[in-house]
Amino acid sequence: MIEKVTIALNDIGIECLPLNGAKGFVDGVQIKNGKIFYCPIKATPSNILHEAGHLAIIPNKYRGKAQDNLSAVMSVMAKEIDFSNPDIGDARAFMQCGDTEATAWAYAFGKRIGLSEKLIIDDKDYDGSGATIRIQLKSSHYMGINGLAAAGFCARPGMHSHKPSNIYPNLSKWLQN
């Protein structure tokens, strides 16, 4: 399944490369210069997808600066972005670059490529709350969905002014501009 995930991520522009011994914030997955390196032995689809979610929601011009500790790229963004109008452009994207948005993105992408929900988010993920988070995502009651909608990735369920093809978990784009 890891190969299916990495091929799909490479296809949308998130470079995924095997690296024995890759270590990062999550087991077996490392982010370096906006690329994902994964240990073929230790990485899980859920960990790769979650880290890919972080990269996907970072504005394109900052993605290549992302390292394991994403707080460094967030600091760069905070210094460079004009927050005089927080509802447009990179300012809006910056405010929607959190862990919950990465989780919601990972779930949507995993569903898009046909993975089972337990491969997308394992029961043991999120300090053992994986099953609960899966239920929240499946029922569209997870706060990260609102962040993705605010960042322009999708519409929230119940927003009747949008096409069904754009309602979460269907995303209208896979990478932040």
Report on this structure.
- This protein is mainly alpha-helical.
- It has one domain.
- It is built from 10 helices and 3 strands.
- It has a 3-stranded mixed β-sheet with strand order 1-3-2.
- It is globular.
- The model has no long low-confidence stretch (mean pLDDT 93).
- The class by helix and strand makeup works out as mainly alpha
Domains (count): 1
**Relative helix content:** 40-55%
User: How many separate helices?
Assistant: 10
Per DSSP E runs of 2 or more residues, the count of β-strands stands at 3
Ends apart, CA distance between termini: 28 Å
Can you list the strand order of the major beta sheet?
Answer: 1-3-2
Q: Encode the helix/strand succession as letters.
A: HEEEHHHHHHHHH
**Strand coverage percent:** 5-15%
Query: How would a textbook summarize the main sheet?
Result: 3 strands, mixed
**Mean pLDDT across all amino acids:** 93
Based on CA atoms alone, the radius of gyration comes out at 15 Å
- Uncertain spans: none
Outline? globular
